[in-house]
Amino acid sequence: MALFLEFVGQQWLLVGALLAVIVMLVLHESRRSGAAVTPQQAINLVNTEDGLFLDLRDAADYKQGHIAGALHIPAAKVGDRMAELEKYRDRPIILVCKLGQQSGAAGKQLKAANFSKIYKMTGGMMEWGNLQLPTVAA
C-alpha cells in the first residue's frame, strides 16, 4: 500500500489522466444505451409523448408485479422480438429491469437498430416499488 501511495504521489499526472479516461468511458457507454430517467420522469414521458414501458425482467418477476401497460420482452430476447417494437420506433421507450442495471445491453441493441428515444429507468422495479407506485400482477 505504501508503494501505491508513493507511486500516486510521484505520478499524479498519470493517475489523473487514467481516472479521466475511465470517467469518459463510463459516460460514453451509458449514453450509447440510452439516457437515464427517474420513475417520475418515465411516467411523464409515457403520459405526454405516448411512450412505452418495456419490461426486461424474466417471466416470473413480471408475473409477480409490473407497471400497468408495460410490454414484456425478456432482455435476452429483445433482438429476436425487435419487430414487436417497430410501431414504437419514434416514441419514447423506457427500459425497465429489476434494479436498473441490466437495461444497458437492450438499450444498445435498440439504439443500433435506429430507435431514437431510448431511456433507462434508474433503480428499475425496486425503485418503482420503493416509491410505492402502482403495479399489476399478471
Descriptive account of the structure:
- The protein has 138 residues and is an alpha/beta fold.
- The chain is 46% helix and 12% strand.
- It has helices at 2-10, 12-32, 39-49, 59-64, 103-112, 124-130, and strands spanning 35-37, 52-55, 71-72, 93-96, 118-121.
- It is elongated, with a radius of gyration of 19 Å.
In short:
It is built from 6 helices and 5 strands; from the N terminus they run H-H-E-H-E-H-E-E-H-E-H. It has 138 residues and is α/β, with parallel strands linked by helices.
Largest sheet, in brief, is: 5 strands, parallel
Terminal Cα span: 54 Å
Strand/helix succession: HHEHEHEEHEH
| Beta-strand content bin | 5-15%
- Average pLDDT reading: 91
Number of domains: 2
Q: Could you name the CATH homologous superfamily of the largest domain?
A: Rhodanese-like domain
SSE class? alpha/beta
The third-level CATH topology of the largest domain is Oxidized Rhodanese, domain 1
Specify the overall morphology.
elongated
Assembly category: single chain
Tally of extended strands?
5
Strand line-up in the sheet with most strands = 1-5-4-2-3
- Helix segment tally: 6
Determine and state the CATH class of the largest domain. Answer: Alpha Beta
Proportion in helices: 40-55%
Radius of gyration: 19 Å
Low-confidence stretches: none
